Design the sequence.
């Protein structure tokens, strides 16, 4: 067998092995989370100015909110009767401001 064919076969074997290894990896974050996201705009004292499920409306409220207001996002699981908070709300204000630059 020529060296070229041997190299090609070896390369293909390595690709297959890498593919097998990557198929055994588990992702921590699913592509689409089943959580219900709640966005809140809070004033500098921490009082809620607005809350809802629309990121777009959240941005609109933030633009009208007093200076120093923050955006919190929280994840909720829901069954047919109740909703339950998952973890703690996250302050994403700095991320939003950085994305607006």
Sequence:
């Amino acid at each position: 067998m020529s060296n070229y064919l041997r190299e090609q076969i070896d390369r293909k074997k390595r690709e297959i092995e890498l593919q097998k290894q990557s198929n055994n990896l588990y992702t921590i974050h699913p592509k689409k989370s089943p959580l219900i996201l709640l966005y809140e705009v809070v004033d500098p004292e921490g009082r809620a100015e607005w809350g809802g499920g629309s990121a777009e409306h959240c941005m609109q409220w933030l633009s009208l909110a007093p200076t120093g207001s923050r955006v919190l996002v929280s994840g909720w699981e829901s069954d047919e009767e109740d909703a339950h908070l998952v973890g703690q709300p996250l302050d994403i204000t700095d991320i939003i401001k950085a994305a607006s630059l």
Notes: The mean pLDDT is 82. Helices lie at 3-23, 55-64, 93-99. Residues 36-99 form one domain. Strands lie at 36-42, 48-52, 70-78, 83-91.
